[in-house]
């Protein structure tokens, strides 16, 4: 009876839009008490759009857009896509990239039109006016990145993301199942807290570098919690593999899907709650 019930559970999962790696996954799903949610692309749509461009005194807004847009065109990061698309829309054709380097969780660096360009969180020193522009964008819930070249910060680009319509309902359902939700992100604290408030999460862990997401999962496990992690990005893969249960958004990257135990096919967070409900019910049938 046991294998049959597990197979029925797996089949029912497929109907709900949950792909389960193997029947043994249901057991860890049942024990989970904490659910760590990646922000970008999991709780939010991850489809960001460029909202504002702020050029420092002496810098030209169009030049900021041209150089930052060109460099970001070479990156797949949601922030990069927004900057590249927004720049193209505003200034047209972008110059070619001569060298490109991705700095995970920080931004991009490279050579465009003979200039050493950087975009992201890569400048230590910001002129007062740019720091103000960045703070203002962040307090409006935007992700702000700094663009500059030849060692000087020259502009701030603010991008906006939208919370997925189903996220707040999903968080309520996860809580109703007795799980504690935690929001985890590499993005800045203010943006993270705004998203957390919108969906009803109290615990926020922000400004975490990609390689430190695993450490966050381990720390929670060290506190005696059984942790599910939901994520979509390349950055989330290691944390998905480390968690007691890894749930990958089907709309996410291949790396995340490979690392996860479960895939939420439609990328709908409510299905995470369905998965937990299903496994509890399936295993209750077996006992
Ligand atoms: P998340 O955990 O939300 O998926 P990441 O760890 O990928 O975020 O990125 C964290 C932060 O690093 C971003 O919010 C952004 O400020 C910066 N960043 C990362 N990649 C880029 C990029 N290609 N261009 C600009 N900024 C970037
Ligand atoms: Mg993400």
UniProtKB/TrEMBL annotation:
<comment type="similarity">
    <text>Belongs to the cation transport ATPase (P-type) (TC 3.A.3) family. Type IB subfamily.</text>
</comment>
<protein>
    <submittedName>
        <fullName>Heavy metal translocating P-type ATPase</fullName>
    </submittedName>
</protein>
């Amino acid at each position: 009876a046991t294998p049959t019930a597990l197979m029925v559970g797996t089949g029912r999962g497929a109907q709900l839009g949950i792909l389960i790696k193997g029947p043994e996954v249901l057991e860890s799903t049942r024990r989970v008490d904490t659910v760590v949610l990646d922000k970008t692309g999991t709780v939010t749509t991850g489809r960001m759009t460029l909202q504002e461009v702020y050029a420092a005194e002496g810098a030209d807004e169009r030049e900021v857009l041209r150089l930052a847009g060109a460099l970001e065109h070479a990156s797949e990061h949601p922030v990069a896509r927004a900057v590249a698309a927004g720049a193209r829309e505003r200034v047209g054709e972008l110059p070619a990239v001569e060298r490109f380097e991705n700095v995970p969780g920080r931004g991009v660096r490279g050579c465009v039109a003979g200039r050493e360009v950087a975009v992201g969180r890569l400048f230590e020193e910001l002129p007062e006016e740019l720091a103000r522009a960045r703070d203002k964008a962040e307090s409006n819930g935007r992700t702000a990145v700094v663009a500059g070249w030849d060692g000087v910060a020259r502009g701030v680009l603010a991008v906006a993301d939208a919370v997925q319509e189903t996220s707040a309902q999903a968080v309520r359902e996860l809580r109703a199942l007795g799980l504690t939700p935690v929001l985890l992100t590499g993005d800045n604290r203010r943006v993270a807290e705004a998203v957390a408030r919108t969906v009803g999460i109290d615990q926020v862990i922000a400004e975490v570098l990609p390689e430190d997401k695993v450490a966050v999962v381990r720390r929670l496990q060290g506190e005696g919690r059984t942790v599910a992690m939901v994520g979509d990005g390349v950055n989330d893969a290691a944390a998905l593999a480390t968690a007691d249960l890894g749930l990958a958004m089907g709309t996410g990257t291949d790396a995340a899907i490979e690392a996860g135990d479960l895939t939420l096919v439609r990328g709908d967070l409510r299905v995470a709650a369905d998965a937990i409900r299903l496994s509890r019910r399936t295993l209750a049938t077996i006992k």
